[in-house]
Amino acid sequence: MKHDVKNLTAEQKLRLICGKDSWHTEDLGGILPQLRLTDASMGVRMQDDRTGVDKPSVSYPSMQMLANTWNRELAEEYAQCVADDCLDYGADVLLGPGINIKRDPLCGRNFEYLSEDPYLAGTLAKAYVYGLQSEGAAACLKHFCCNNAETNRLQQSSDVDERTLREIYYKPFETACEAKPLSVMSSYNRINGVYGSEYKKGYDVLRGEYGFDGLIMSDWDAMRDRTAAAKAGCDLEMPFRADNYEKLLQDYKDGKITEREIDICASRVIDYVYRCKKLSSGKKRKFTLEQRIEFTQKAEEEAIVLLKNNGVLPLVEGTSLAVCGLFARPCAYGRKSPDLICGGGSGRVTRLMPTFDMIELLRKVHGANVEYEPAFSEDGVDSTYMDRGRAVSNAAAQDINIVFAGTGARIECEGGDRATMRLCAAQERTIIDTARVNPNTVVVLFAGAAIDMSAWINDVAAVLYVGFPGENGGNAIANVLTGKVNPSGKTSETFPVSYDDMPAARTYKDSNVTRYGEGLDVGYRYFDTYGVRTLFPFGHGLSYSKFEYNGLKLTVKDSGELEVSLSVTNLSERDGKETVQVYVRACAPRVYRPYKELKGYAKTLVRSGCTELVNIALDKRAFEYWSTAKDSWTTDDGVYEIIVGASSRDIRLTSTIRIEDGKITVLK
């Protein structure tokens, strides 16, 4: 029997909207089904209800690496695998995906988020939500909204103008809501002075404009005033806090909240419980556990970004290798070994498999001599068995030198931001010193966000960005290094030359307020508009193949969409995947608009010597901006440039259109 809010007493309804404990919804003594919620980022983080210890689960590449694939189909498959993990552990709700915009590269949780660009983040999140819920686990989009830093996140106010909210920070949620997620999580921070759990203005946009018909829950312990949050539309507080419940009960008795207002929240909780149970009813695993573990390698292979390469990669069979850096052999780091190759906090997953050994993998895959020296740890606090001098000697004696460097969970973690974009001094010194004696130096980076490489980038031959790679990540890295896999990842965020180049570094910030003074100029929007040099631009990623773009053609469809068509030819002797990116520029805008904005993309496999036709559709939303004068989305008449590139800076083809009274005419 499905229960209705009309069958409950006022006290039962009040209790229902406050959760049961840390991870379960209230069942009112068995009257309602109970939901089990679980953390998510690199997979399922499920705590044992008795001990509080995290249960081992499949560790996937981090969400920032998923974004680097630029592959909607892979994002859907990723989520289907995670949904199977939820079924294994009895979890009804996965607290993800995280789709906050990467405004500041120092944010400690950037490894959990998808992109600096709202279109890329939103489209991948939409695919993720669809995949997750199609296989029986409810999604919970987080964190709504403007949770773009961890420092003082419980108090700080993200002060953002309305247009920027609409075009940048709301946008991923708007797009992801097209997949009908069953829930959304509030942020800890305040938005223009109002706590995320009490953000009625934003909730009204979610429900009234974006078609969201699910449940809004608080982040864990983000609730300051349960009554104010309920009146604003936050349906469920998690976890249960007795003092908040008692205060809510007293406020009800004092008439500060009406029974009708309580009924709205309680009805949504009841509806949510039944919808989640229906979602998982009768579901069977789509993938075996072994297949899910295998998928982690597939995902990492598509996500790895070859940032720089002077031809030293792929490794030539038989060349001798000098390898240094503890990141090459995290298995030697004892019980803390996974912390080298993952982020910290609620998104951290306890791996099923031991951490990989890159030395053994390279010996197996490359089939040549490998000399290894740990040289340094992730934070530069080195023990006596680390000898950077030996690393330099090895580098001088071998054909190629590979430095495995990075950050890890001690540095990139929920609850705090990175102090710097640079690697620790011990790592930088090792890269510089070994590159000085061996110009064929390759740096392999384990990190969850952009790294400042200014101290050493000109000294090395190649840089491979592998992020936080998951269970079978070692195999993926070895395959890309040796050429068994052709890299196809593209950056989902801009790599600035240094942190001082970021607009977020120069806006007002104190202990209570962060002013988003850059407005729309987030990430590449800023760098491309103002012509600021980058280390690696948004959408950048090299391949072992060479691709040529030709034959750009624009066609206006009967539906009003603009179809962008072009040919991509693989000029090399190696099959490869290429991501074509379509940007739009308003040539003479009536209001400020960034120089160009991503509005479409497609990843395509192109066989050696072959040509593939790529079609990307742009709907009318691709030309809109949020008009604060009209309080609506607006497309101005005028000329627009259609820009096709291999990155935001590597522009291959352009054409122009005119829009008049909503109708598109192709000019050239």
Task: Describe the protein.
With 668 residues, the chain is of the alpha/beta class. Helices cover 26% and strands 22% of the residues. It has a six-stranded mixed sheet with strand order 2-1-3-4-6-9. A six-stranded mixed sheet has the order 10-15-14-13-11-12, sandwiched between helices. A hairpin with a 5-residue loop joins strand 19 (547-556) and strand 20 (562-570). Helix 3 runs antiparallel to helix 11 (289-303), helix 11 packs across helix 15 (473-482) and helix 13 runs parallel beside helix 14 (425-437). The chain is globular, with a radius of gyration of 25 Å. The termini are far apart.
- The strands making up the biggest β-sheet line up spatially as 2-1-3-4-6-9
Distance between the termini: 63 Å
Helical percent range?
A: 25-40%
- Beta-strand content bin: 15-25%
Which secondary-structure class do the elements indicate? Answer: alpha/beta
Give a quick account of the main beta sheet: strands, pairing sense, barrel closure. Answer: 6 strands, mixed
Average pLDDT over all residues: 96
Number of helices: 16
Which ranges are low-confidence, i.e. pLDDT below 50, for 5 or more consecutive residues? none
Radius of gyration: 25 Å
| Overall number of strands | 28
**Shape summary:** globular
